[in-house]
């Protein structure tokens, strides 16, 4: 059979360093992968004048899966928005129709001390946020700046955006969420702001409708402000959360930070056929780029997620995840998760250790 | 001089019980207040068929200040949205032009144990969120349900809302925030999502523009997802946050929950002339209503905020706040903040203790 083709998009900051380690881990497996590398984000702009160069988008479309590092660097902060590194990730999501974002927030027992929350509140945390990724106010038209057409400030300059969700859009993310919940704790929490927003009212209605097809999953609803509180108060009471693009952006980052070890958290962004883009939940950390100290584990675990969700190689994914657990159990730590009594290592040593543990 | 008139709006759930205690505290001061009580929320609907009855709105407009309990109860959950208790609070904000919401998140040293965060992360926390309250996607038109006019799901049923901010609207909340920051740590963090939203781009531009009038206040910007993370990671690094209605809803609740003692937190919603509505940051807690166990301190501290911001009685406000600190120091606790070694009291006993400590 033909080799599996992976688009390797390192991006900016620590992206290249950590993606390198993930590549080494993939190469250490029994399967053969065809990896093709391309510039994205600030690196795309620097080399080709655009954060998502045409060649990169073409590669991403052709490939069986995309392994993405991170984008963003101080030096691109002054560019106009359409040229800034983040546009690459928004463009990939939209063009590849990656509507389902899975963001696990898992606290590894060895790293419980890294959390700012009390151990009893977070130890054993294993939460999954299912975020809709191609709709909502992120892409809704119309949007822009104009003279206010009506209201108390008619005639004044205003900025505006449109939050929108169509029924089939809500329905398909609902199915992903219910199917995921079914395989886990059989509980699903849908987060919205139905007491204020029309979009949320439709969201809630469709969630309830789809729930009829999953009688073994218990659905409940939470307003987004309350969800933000419950994440802080008792995160272990939550299991799978499904929410829109905007609320998911905020809640998934809050949830990741509860663990104190965001350097460990991978994420997947999937299309209808389970083709996907895989990336760490953390950013490009330009302040520590090039120093060889970044934690490559979220990137390595993103590769494992890729094998499981898009490439049908669950066993190989298991091997990687077990290897990561082993290096943690062996006491190896990069700086971001270092604690007294453990061994501090760099990016490459951490990658070496995972390869050795495979 | 004519008596100060206060609109007392108890609302639902524990609202009546806690507002009673605040009334007793106000009556124990040297000033004389004319307090007029009216139904609001579910109670408004039950008595007059609307959550914000005409008479209540009229009273709120006439009064010098509004002391508000809380609204919402399970029994109103099935009402259509326009009749639900929350509409009262949205209606009061809009009708009275209460655009500036001040939400302190303060951790009283005696209550550090109540937080789910580690003591070193939150002890001494004293954060203020300035939330714009009458604009944004909460009130933006157009909104509703329709057949999608364009896009990938053209023709499908969709829900939509409009996020909008006009320049003068941003400008006036910016001034409130800068003035507040100037009196505190001289640092202001503006939270937006300018990497995605047009509304946020204008927000950021105006914040920067207004900052020129406050050269002694250091302004910085944070994306809302990052702000949610920083609240969990290192809340004490933040001082005053200013943000829009939607992001403020989420972040202020998250910030309140960091303290673990939301039963202690008051809030103010002010108009251009510092007339305001004052309410606890917590909700109506219908599950414990009528049991005499609710914590009245957030409501009592809301009365203190009212004296300070709207009624120009800073000394009286100080007296109340000192009295509250004294009862805490004396070890009195309602159930929500109870810890071993302290004395558990009910709503009325707590009110008694504050009156005695005045
Ligand atoms: C970079 C930004 C546009 C993006 C988002 O808001 O979706 C990021 O925060 C994320 O969550 O992946
Ligand atoms: C009740 C609801 C409409 C309200 C809001 O979202 O503003 C509440 O959550 C608040 O923060 O005061």
UniProtKB/TrEMBL annotation, chains A, B:
Q: How does the cofactor bind to this protein, according to its record?
A: Binds 1 Mg(2+) or Mn(2+) ion per subunit.
Q: What Gene Ontology molecular-function terms does this entry list? A: 3-isopropylmalate dehydrogenase activity; magnesium ion binding; NAD binding
Question: Part of which pathway?
Answer: Amino-acid biosynthesis; L-leucine biosynthesis; L-leucine from 3-methyl-2-oxobutanoate: step 3/4
Q: Which keywords describe this protein according to UniProt?
A: Amino-acid biosynthesis, Branched-chain amino acid biosynthesis, Cytoplasm, Leucine biosynthesis, Magnesium, Manganese, Metal-binding, NAD, Oxidoreductase
Q: Which cofactor does it need?
A: Mg(2+); Mn(2+)
Its localization reads: Cytoplasm
**InterPro entries, from UniProt?**
IsoCit/isopropylmalate_DH_CS, IsoPropMal-DH-like_dom, Isopropylmalate_DH
Q: Name one Pfam family in it.
A: Iso_dh
State where NAD(+) binds.
283-295
EC class, as a word, reads oxidoreductase
Q: Where is the Isopropylmalate dehydrogenase-like domain?
A: 5-354
The record's Gene Ontology biological-process terms are:
L-leucine biosynthetic process
Q: Does the keyword Nucleotide-binding apply?
A: no
Main subcellular location: cytoplasm
Q: Which GO terms describe its cellular component?
A: cytosol
Which reactions does this protein catalyse? (2R,3S)-3-isopropylmalate + NAD(+) = 4-methyl-2-oxopentanoate + CO2 + NADH
EC number(s) on file: 1.1.1.85
Supply the Gene3D superfamilies for this chain: Isopropylmalate Dehydrogenase
Q: Where is this site: Important for catalysis?
A: 138, 193
Q: Which residues participate in Mg(2+) binding?
A: 225, 249, 253
The entry marks the following residues as binding substrate, namely 93, 103, 131, 225
Q: What does the subunit comment say?
A: Homodimer.
Function statement: Catalyzes the oxidation of 3-carboxy-2-hydroxy-4-methylpentanoate (3-isopropylmalate) to 3-carboxy-4-methyl-2-oxopentanoate. The product decarboxylates to 4-methyl-2 oxopentanoate.
Q: Which family does it belong to?
A: Belongs to the isocitrate and isopropylmalate dehydrogenases family. LeuB type 1 subfamily.
This protein's name: 3-isopropylmalate dehydrogenase
* Originating species: Oxalobacter formigenes OXCC13
**In the UniProt record, what gene is named as encoding this protein?**
leuB
